[in-house]
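Record now logged for everyone:
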Amino acid sequence: MCTITARTACSAGAWNVWQALNSVYHAVVIAKLTYAPSAWWRSTNSSDRQHIEAFVRRDIRCVFCRDDDSTVGKLMKVSDQALFKR
């Protein structure tokens, strides 16, 4: 349902709305997931990680984020490496 609605809105000329949703999604959700991953990512088990991955996949399906976004594991690794480069 959410995919059809978002795609219809994008095809109807509401491209700016989709871009705004994508920006807010990255500013809020991805930022919260990638904040200090070294403090919490290693303490999660595979079930927790699958739940987080499913959440992000559902958001991709609902067109809140792009398909080209990396998996959560890759995002954690990149974020962790960026943290220690500073």
Remarks:
- Residues 2-85 form one domain.
- DSSP finds five helices and no strands in the chain.
- The chain has one domain: 2-85.
